[in-house]
Amino acid sequence: EFEDAHVQHKGGEMYPQLYTMARFLYRGGWIVRAGDSMTFLAKRGASTLHYSCGAPAMIELGGRAYLLEPQYKSIRVDLDHDGRVTLRGISGEVNLDRMQHE
Q1: Which residues, at least 6 apart from 23, have a Cβ–Cβ distance to it below 8 Å?
Q2: How far apart are CA 40 and CA 87, in angstroms?
Q3: Which of these, 91, 101, 82, 100, lies nearest to 32 by C-alpha position?
Q4: How far is CA 47 from the centre of its chain?
Q5: Tens digit of each residue's pLDDT (9 = 90 or more) over 49-101
Q6: Minimal CA–CA distance to 88: which of 53, 47, 57, 44?
Q7: Where do the DSSP E strands lie in the chain?
Q8: Residue partners of 52: CB distance under 8 A and separation at least 6
Q9: Cβ atoms of 68 and 5 closer than 8 Å
């Protein structure tokens, strides 16, 4: 979950906003735009990143670039080490829901 306490954000915003009525019903977590970044703890290997965006967006995660297609989707990502990793917005805007280690 990208709004967890171990996640350090530089830019972006929580979605939906804190104190939104029935917030648990929404898919989403953190909106990232070009220039925003976050670091978080992750495990080495394959994970599934769940996201939504209205237009193509690009992110960099663990030194690799990923093109994200529009709509609510998921994409397989690979990390080469355990520990803290960085996710950066390269272009567009994406609402990052969560990342699950496989």
Answers
A1: 16
A2: 8
A3: 91
A4: 12
A5: 999 999 999 999 999 999 999 999 999 999 999 999 999 999 999 999 899 99
A6: 57
A7: 8-10, 13-14, 30-33, 37-42, 45-53, 57-61, 64-68, 71-79, 83-91, 93-101
A8: 27, 28, 71, 72, 73, 94, 95, 97
A9: no
Q: Is 38 exposed, middle or buried (0-12, 13-18, 19+ CB in 10 A)?
A: buried
> What's 55's DSSP letter?
S
Query: What tokens appear for 46 in the block?
Result: 């394959």
**Six token digits for residue 86:** 């960085």
Bridge-based pairing of strands 93-101 and 45-53 is antiparallel
- What residue type is assigned to position 21 of the chain? M
CA–CA distance from 100 to each of 2, 46, 60, 78, 83 (Å)? Answer: 11, 9, 17, 11, 15
pTM for the predicted model, two decimal places: 0.86
Assigned token pair, 78 = 């690979």
